[in-house]
Design a protein that fits this description.
Strand order of the largest sheet: 2-1-3-4-5
CATH architecture of the largest domain: 3-Layer(aba) Sandwich
Largest sheet: 5 strands, parallel
Bound molecules: calcium ion
Oligomer: single chain
Strand content: 15-25%
Radius of gyration: 18 Å
Structural class: alpha/beta
Distance between the termini: 30 Å
CATH class of the largest domain: Alpha Beta
Length: about 220
């Protein structure tokens, strides 16, 4: 899951970074409105956390710009300004959710997971495919026979992304962007290695390869 955080409070970002990483998010951070607006338009994110009081350009204006050009990425506003009328303004400007400071990181993560899920067209919290259920909180996979599989960080993030978009063929580039940190090696062969690890865990037919296009979860036979 690739997340953009537009927030000028460096201490807060510093505090959130390891918690969000542990929850399986890959982070990009902008500390002002101009850079945040640019990054949001330039790259593809699964969700955006947006502060309102930002240097350069106010968060609400950044959000209005994004929505006016058709950016559909789910946005959660995170701010100390959380009077009811400010929440209304934020939601009307196109925010999907609103969280007032101070907050518990666990609530932020749960809200982000919820808006990402809704954006992917899923109404419940279960990520399931062909008898494999992903337990997002514990980052393990459960199989029909009741057995569980421990997943490494990358295996978890890759499987979650595939399960959120089961109908789409996902290119190696898209997968690496949503599964790795920016500074990590973005060699697309690494994705191949992890796809094969998931096949090893859940069966070779669990994921299909589309030549020159990418990967997709294989539809179970009826
Ligand atoms: Ca601020």
């Amino acid at each position: 899951m690739k997340l953009l955080i537009v927030e000028d409070d460096a201490e807060l970002v510093h505090e959130l970074r390891p918690i969000l990483k542990k929850a399986g998010f890959v982070l990009d951070v902008a500390d002002n409105g101009m850079d945040g607006e640019f990054l949001g338009l330039e790259e593809s994110f699964d969700a955006i956390v947006l502060d309102l009081g930002l240097p350069g350009k106010e968060g609400i204006e950044v959000l209005r710009t994004w929505r006016s050009v058709g950016l559909a990425t789910p946005v959660l506003i995170l701010t100390a300004r959380d009077a009811w009328f400010e929440r209304v303004d934020g939601l009307r400007a196109g925010a999907d959710d609103y969280l007032g400071k101070p907050f518990h990181p666990g609530e932020l993560i749960a809200r982000l997971e919820a808006i990402i899920r809704r954006n992917a067209g899923k109404s419940d919290n279960t990520l399931e495919w062909a008898g494999v259920t992903l337990d997002v909180e514990r980052q393990i996979a459960c199989q029909q026979d009741g057995s569980t599989r421990e997943l490494t960080g990358i295996e978890f993030r890759l499987l979650r992304y595939l399960m959120l978009h089961p109908q789409r063929v996902l290119s190696k580039t898209e997968l690496s962007e949503h599964v790795y940190e920016e500074e990590q090696l973005k060699d697309s062969n690494v994705i191949e290695v992890y796809i094969n690890r998931l096949r090893h865990l859940f069966g070779k037919d669990f994921i299909e390869t589309r030549r020159r296009q990418g990967y997709r979860l294989r539809a179970p036979e009826r």
